[in-house]
Write a structure and sequence with these properties.
two-stranded parallel sheet; 8-stranded mixed sheet; 10 strands; alpha/beta; DNA-binding; 10 helices; WH_DNA-bd_sf; 43% helix; HTH-type_LysR_regulators; single chain
Amino acid sequence: MEIKQMKYFVEVVRNGGMTQASEHLYIAQSTISKNIKSIENEFDITLFDRRKKHIILTDIGQIFYDKCVEALAVLDDLSLEMGDVTNLERGHIRIGISAIMNVRLFTESLNQFHSQYPNVTYEVIEGGGKAVEFYLNNDEIDVGITTLPVDEDIYHAVPLYKEKLLLIVDKNSELAQQSSIYLGDLKDESFIMFHDDYYLKDQIIESCRKVGFHPKTVAKMSQITFIENMIRDGIGVSILPESIVNILNDGVVGIEISGADVAWNLGVIWKKESYMNHVTHEWINFLKDLK
């Protein structure tokens, strides 16, 4: 049975006859009659009591009519909802973000998108770059914001911004008096690092290795506030992106680093060959334009 056959049948009942239905639908009466007969043959039922002068539904015809009305209503609702989604009247985006990024920059861009599409909803999960990739691989998020580069065989990526990495020290320390420092001169310092699932940690260790030492790690964590407080308490130093340093309080200072890979790239990534809903696709395009 086709949808149009249900529609023809419902219109016959609502208009009180095939002649009236054909006029309402601008379709030949013979077409309507043929389609209704096709329904009866398919289900081996009789929809109308044709002995009567007016349209009278049989018992099975009444049940069939009620079900057709329900089914057509569901299809109408589905059509409206699909229209809402494709027109971004509604939708849901699952996003994984790095704790290292400037959250204010992220929320500002999200606010701009939300002001245009206020019925779109969001789910945000925080984690390191390796965690973000894990969430993508397990379909727990639709898109991630993380450190670039990533494996191009697995993920699509769009760069968002690039910034410097700075050494962060207590403002009262001897190091705070310097405007720039060679990374190799930090071989005796204690480092406060991010957890192992953050690519920034790998980048810092590799940069230190290139200048001849392995950083002595005194603590691993993922909360910027904890890192900041430990630096202020003189427990160690850390290396963070400049945008993060700019939102820390004045108890710590950032110092430029030489002799190291001091560039940090952030981008939006999503898994290749995976389904992406319409609203997430539009959000990525929005980020590209905003960038």
